[in-house]
Amino acid sequence: MSEILKGRGVSVHYGGVQALADVDLEVNENELVGLIGPNGAGKTTFVDALTGFTRYTGAISVDGRDLTGLAPHQRARHGLARTWQSTELFDDLTVSENLAVGSRRPSPWQVAKELVATPSTTTPTVEQALDLVELGWAADFMPDELSQGQRKLVGVARAIASGPRLLLLDEPAAGLDTSESEELGHRLRALARGGTAMLLIEHDMGLVLSVCDRIVVLEFGKVIAAGTPEEVRRDPRVVEAYLGSAGAQRAAESLDV
To answer: What pLDDT score does 123 carry?
Structure first.
């Protein structure tokens, strides 16, 4: 299994505050890796470092290519695509147009041509991405005609439409009900089997534990655990990070029963 993402010793400082400290994380082809931790653990900061939106020390590579010094748009061209916690859609464009913006990488000739001709926004890539999240029916809708959960799914589909090597999902299940979250999980697994590597940040532990191949846990910017969902679920450091020491003791007693 080939390695898509490799992060080594990734650290981020904001003034005197260390948001990440020597984080190591890998994602392989066809793999769905979860990145979890309490609020403020550094999860989104790590994705910001990967995608070039914050300065970091350490090394990050995609498909063996060192990303040092590359701007966000250059990293996107190397196969990184992300969603955002807030639903950043173009509200004056239709759903399919929102996806077309994310999926197209026109050449200079195409840009010149489109100055005098309107490009098509219905492409197999856009249609497939919408079908993947079951929003094909909404292709011609405006974003403000959709629910918050549906808008989140449009953001996921837009990232998928770019055909990334690594898809970075920042809380994609936020705003979804239980059944929608479960369905999203099924579709993410299908996407991973199809060859798209993913890093999933999510507070829905049921979703993370059910769909991820491996999970990395952050607390105060440091990796405190990593392994399979079952290994992470039983790790006392993880339980304590989420529940506190008293909750960790009760959880340990329940697991021994």
So the answer is: 61
